[in-house]
Amino acid sequence: MKLVKPGSDLVGFPELFEQFQILLEDHQQVMELIADLGEKSGGEFIFDRKYLADTLNEMQNLILRMVKGVNLISSNRYLDLYSSIDRIFIPIEAELRGRLNLSRDMPYVVSLEEATPDRPELLGGKANSLTIIMQNLSLPVPPGFVITTRAWRRFLEDNHLEERIHGWLEAWAAGERDETESARQLQYSILAGVVPTEVAGEIRRHAEKGGGAWAVRSSAYGEDGEITFAGLHQSYLNVPPRGLLEAFKQVLASLFAPEALVYRQAMRMLGEEAAMAVLVQEMVASQVSGVVHTMDVSGLEPDCLVVYASWGLGRTVVEGSGGVDRYVVERDSPYRLRRQEIARKETLTRAAAGGGEEVAPVSGDAQEQASLSEETLQTLVHWALTLERYFKRPQEIEWALDESGHCWLLQSRGLQISKTISPAEQDICETCAGYPILIEKTGVVVHAGVGSGPVCMVQDDEGMNRFPEGAVLVAKYTAPWLARIVPKAAAIVAERGSAAGHLATIAREFRVPALVGVERASEILTEGMKVTVDTKQRIIYAGRVKELLQFELIQAMAFEDAPEFRLLRRLLTRIAPLYLTDPQEPDFTPEGCRTVHDVIRFIHEKAVAELMDLPRFVKRFKGVQIWTLVSDIPLGLKVIDLGGGVEAEIHGSKLFPEQIRSLPLKALWEGLSEPGVWSTEPVPVDFKGMMASLTKTVAATPGAAPAAGFNLAVINETYLNLHLHLGYHFNLIDARMDPEPHRNHIYFRFVGGVTDLTRRSRRSQFLAKVLSQYHFKVDTKGDLVVAKVLHLPPEDVKERLKILGRLIGFTRQLDIQLRHDDDIPEYAEAFLQQMLRSEPPDTGGKYESGEA
Amino acid sequence: MSPEKLRIMVLDDEPIVCKRLKPALEKLGYEVDAFTQSPEAMHQIQRISYDIVITDLKMKEIDGMQVLSEAKKRHPGTEVIVITGFATMETAKQSLQMGVFDFIAKPFKLSEIQEVVNRAAAKIRGSKP
Questions:
Q1: Phi-psi bin for A670: left (phi > 0), alpha (psi -120 to 50), beta?
Q2: Is the ipTM of this complex over 0.95?
Q3: A442 at the B interface (CB within 8 A)?
Q4: Three-state SS for A558?
Q5: How would you label A142-155 residue by residue, b for 16+ Cβ within 10 Å and e otherwise?
Q6: How far is the alpha carbon of A538 from chain B, nearest alpha carbon, in Å?
Q7: Over residues A794-808, mean pLDDT
Q8: A842 pLDDT band (50/70/90 cuts)?
Q9: How many Å lie between the alpha carbon of B81 and the closest alpha carbon of chain A?
Q10: CB A711 within 8 A of CB A635
Q11: CA B71 to CA B58: how far, in whole Å?
């Protein structure tokens, strides 16, 4: 490519015009691909690796073209974007080839808070689950770090062990040696090895962050996944910092304990490479500890979960070395304690003074005493059901209660239910047919799964606060503000909304079965009614379909745990999140782009800014038709039509509102030009002064784009990009209004003002309040408001654009009026009331009739 | 629900397809055998007659077209549903001439394949006396 000095030459309008058009199209296509990938992670689609590779390839080609385009428009101002693309796509390609965990970029040691989840091949099964539990479910996990499988490989390499291990394993498999002898040789060679200096250094560095003693546990790859190695590998409790390296090697060596060898052979895993990560966590000095089974493994009480508890450290319960209390609690709300069996507890395990554990007698009174309070029991039950709901499989959970009475989650893994106690080969199809069906074959699947609970309708903040754990959320819209209660929901059913919106993303993140576009859901599903939502079949049953819930729980694998889904989720972390929201932030640069979404956002913003660059604009647009919109509203709006945005036969440079063909601009103008919108409230500034301030060209308001002091709309038939300087506000609206809902979006950005920051912040709170009511996802920061809404049908986009039009009028001078924080709700209410007067609310009659 | 369950074979060398389809179709009341190795599936077809065979087109060893013709030869009443990738779309269209019931392109929705299978089942049940 020819390198041109930035700013040296300007591209002529025809080329610029064409590039801008292509850029918009490409931007749209990338957005659609991102949405597609997001949807695929919901489980309704069946896809393979090839699909992922093809999609990513297509995405990369589009983005390369966009980078080329924005550089053409801007005379090569953004060549650094090429390295942004490399930075993002090289790891993506490595992921697709399945190579990443061998790469040198992978850490030897990583803290649990910072580890990337969905990477069991690096973290091992146990640590991977804990990372998810900590980061996604926010349950209290003792802090610590993981010595990764990469450290294990480095250990083998440096000690020249790979070949030898392989040889011994082969000799054993061939029957030349017995397992005791083989195990001894294998383990000895590991214990005699030296921990590589870099690995040891990293371990020390992480250990310094914590204080006191550590619990060191195995986290083998494959462990705690479909196959459980429960108890086969070693754990060391109460390890002092100086003992960490030794404990690390001991845990590595336990990979080749005789029982582990036999087990791996029986599971036919001997041929696969074994890999061991080691989990190191701060020691919990537990007064009580134990285990929860979310299902009764005896099969006698299938509707209950069972909590085991005893005094001291967990070994007593895990190894069954002493008396253990047993609590049987119903799985269904209100989680009644059905029975408790209090054992005589004569001994306990505790941390020994010099490190390690010791067994001690339990004092007389405590021997017969119940080890759990009602409150702790309820906490554990609540955690257990949350974990089961998330992992979609019965769980076996280890927990501890520390001396100050705080509960800690030590680990959670799939509970092995013996086939013999699984319900007899019932015909699930026939059983389900016995339950009444409330809703069938409607809606779009956001996340596949089955969830059951009482219906809870949520329409406002108050509704969110009373939303009970494990209820089925029923809503009119998938409004982004509902996100807070998603983790508590057993399932989500919405009448409207998109499978690609913010709430859908959150539902997938928390693996909550969700269905949108279910017409009349809020009529059919009434408050408190118990239902079972099966989004895999798109059926909602009346009542709790226990057999179906059980059927789902005992399937061999939850789709979320399939390698393809893990891969997709890892890819999505490099694709979908948007970090660059504010163009005024210092990191709004090519270097600041962390994801694909950031890159296209950056390019879009810069391409538009290029059009808005005033000095260039005048030069560049010489001879280009620019319309001036003529109306009573003194906006002085300039309009550039990219095609089909205005009526074909217009003479001169004047454009009248009725000549606008662009659907989004038309809708916005309709709102803005409604009677009373432009100047309803008397603003305490004289009319002349106000008009002056309205049409004034602002040189450089803090937070506004410099030298962009005029109002411009770039349009085509379905697209609008609008820049407004009103008073001292800077307002950007970017919208598409297409017949196809999945192509549509509205992006709204509002910043700046004439008053002090406090008042301007009040205005942004006002905007946030109003926009949330209309289901925008709103982010505010100081006086900046960024709001967006996606994938709505054209009539809904239209309605919202009209509202934005009115908001533009309403907020012109609003910061002057908002004198107190208390004024915010009042003004928001006033605005919403005004909306109500002029037309029925969006959740009103027109949707209830539904559209067949 | 008919007392006699229809038997379905699912064949795809991507394990994820088998793992997802088997329980989804079982829930609809079918009896499902899933295979990731085409020679194994071929062997099975020679032993048992399936009402419906769902097969990927492009596989290592024996490809979907061979499976299709073998299934039809053994048991003309078998309805075959072909799964295709984007690249094999042309072959898929050819397969229509070979008596394929329908084909479905990857990636597809669970509900789409369930719908196709239900249609095939209705046809089979309709043609049985």
A1: alpha
A2: no
A3: no
A4: coil
A5: bebbbbbbbbbbbb
A6: 8
A7: 93
A8: very low
A9: 15
A10: yes
A11: 16
CATH 3.30.1490.20 location in chain A = 112-282
A203: Cα within 13 Å, side-chain hemisphere: 26
Q: Across the interface, do A47 and B27 touch by the CB < 8 Å criterion?
A: no
What's the pLDDT score for residue A841? Answer: 42
Name the residue among B51, B55, B50 with its Cα closest to residue B17.
Answer: B55
User: Is residue A593 helix, strand or coil?
Assistant: coil
CA–CA gap between residue B68 and residue B82 (Å, rounded): 8
> Tokens 């088998």, residue?
B18
| Structural domains of chain B sorted by starting position, each given as residue range(s) with its CATH number in brackets | 7-124 (3.40.50.2300)
Q: Do A46 and B113 touch (CB under 8 A)?
A: yes
- For residue range A661-710, what is the model confidence (pLDDT) as tens digits? 999 999 999 998 887 777 544 444 434 333 434 443 333 333 333 333 57
Residues A295, A395: Cα–Cα separation, whole Å: 8
E-assigned strand segments in A70-213:
109-111, 144-147
pLDDT at A844: 35
pLDDT band at A711 (very low <50, low <70, confident <90, very high): confident
Q: What is the pLDDT of residue A680?
A: 43
Q: Start-end ranges of CATH 3.50.30.10 in chain A?
A: 428-553
pLDDT at position B121 is: 94
Q: What local confidence, expressed as pLDDT, does residue A83 receive? A: 94
| 3-state secondary structure (DSSP) of residue B80 | strand
Query: Model confidence at B79, in pLDDT bands (50, 70, 90)?
Result: very high
Q: What's the CATH number of domain A286-417, 3.40.190.10, 3.10.310.40, 3.30.470.20, 3.90.1150.10?
A: 3.30.470.20
Q: Does domain A428-553 have CATH number 3.50.30.10?
A: yes
Q: What's the topology of domain A112-282? A: Dna Ligase; domain 1 (3.30.1490)
Q: Is the dihedral of CA A189, A192, A197, A200 positive or negative?
A: positive
Element spanning A786, H or E: strand A784-790
Residues in chain A with CB shorter than 8 Å from the CB of B10 are none
How does the average pLDDT of chain A come out, rounded? Answer: 83
> How many angstroms separate the CA atoms of B74 and B49, rounded?
7
Mutant choice from A36, A46, A518 vs B, greatest count of B C-beta within 10 A: A46
Interface test with A, best of B6, B8, B17, B20 (most A CBs within 10 A): B20
Which has more confidence, A130 or A162? A130
For chain A, give every residue range classified as CATH 3.30.470.20. 286-417
Distance CA A534, CA A451 (A): 7
Closest Cβ–Cβ partner in A44, A562, A563 for B110: A44
Cα–Cα distance, A765 to A788 (Å, whole number): 15
Question: Which amino acid is it at B85?
Answer: G
Tens digits of residue pLDDT in A263-306? 777 766 665 567 889 999 999 989 999 999 998 887 788 889 99
**Residue A263 touches chain B, beta carbons under 8 Å:** no
Q: Say yes or no: B20 contacts chain A, CB-CB below 8 A.
A: yes
Report the interhelical angle of A502-509 vs A13-40 (nearest 10°). Answer: 30
